[in-house]
């Protein structure tokens, strides 16, 4: 795997690039919307100051690492940020996460953005990715399936800071041809396999 940090990517409708200070206005409706953030661990960020603190404290430091994939999803038409895709815990679970502004839901944009990142990961011999979704959020699971990910197991976690018990389904896609199952969640939480169709 190459050592690289969030190279700019393009898809049919999107530019996937690093976040910048200029994106704060676009980030507020994304990170502050109650419905967008329902199934994410953090509470919605209601002020520009809160989003700025997250940008400077969490997102921008990722761009100092030797390997990172932390993308703003922007429309080609106007460079407006409407979502994000990132790979968390590189070297561990390699978990892909994503969110999209509500007005752009159900247009295939999340799948398009994630597929662009997966294509890049495959090109640089990234070994595998995982993804998890709350069982009450089947639309997120549908994105995982569109990416070619397959269900491996479910587990229950007390999610913080919301302090709620969530049942997650874990999906995985091996990009390097090696058959493996990431067992990190199995080792930490009660787990089981559901008879999914």
Automatic annotation (TrEMBL):
It comes from the Bacteria. Residues 14-171 form the N-acetyltransferase domain. It holds the Pfam family Acetyltransf_3. GO terms for molecular function: acyltransferase activity, transferring groups other than amino-acyl groups. This is GNAT family N-acetyltransferase. It comes from Candidatus Avimonoglobus intestinipullorum.
């Amino acid at each position: 795997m190459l050592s690289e940090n969030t190279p700019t990517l393009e898809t049919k409708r999107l530019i996937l690039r690093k976040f910048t200070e200029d994106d704060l206005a676009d980030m507020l409706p994304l990170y502050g919307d109650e419905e967008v953030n329902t199934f994410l661990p953090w509470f919605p960020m209601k002020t520009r100051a809160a989003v700025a603190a997250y940008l400077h404290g969490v997102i921008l430091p990722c761009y100092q690492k030797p390997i990172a994939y932390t993308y703003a999803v922007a429309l080609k038409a106007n460079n407006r940020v409407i979502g994000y895709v990132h790979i968390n815990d590189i070297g561990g679970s390699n978990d892909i996460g994503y969110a999209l502004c509500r007005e752009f839901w159900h247009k295939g944009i999340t799948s398009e953005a994630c597929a662009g990142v997966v294509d890049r990961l495959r090109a640089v011999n990234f070994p595998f990715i995982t993804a998890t979704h709350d069982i009450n959020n089947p639309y997120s699971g549908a994105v995982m399936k569109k990416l070619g990910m397959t269900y491996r197991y479910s587990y229950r976690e007390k999610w913080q800071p919301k302090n709620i018990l969530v049942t997650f389904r874990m999906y995985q896609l091996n990009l390097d041809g090696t058959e493996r199952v990431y067992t990190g969640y199995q080792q930490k939480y009660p787990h089981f396999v559901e008879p999914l169709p």
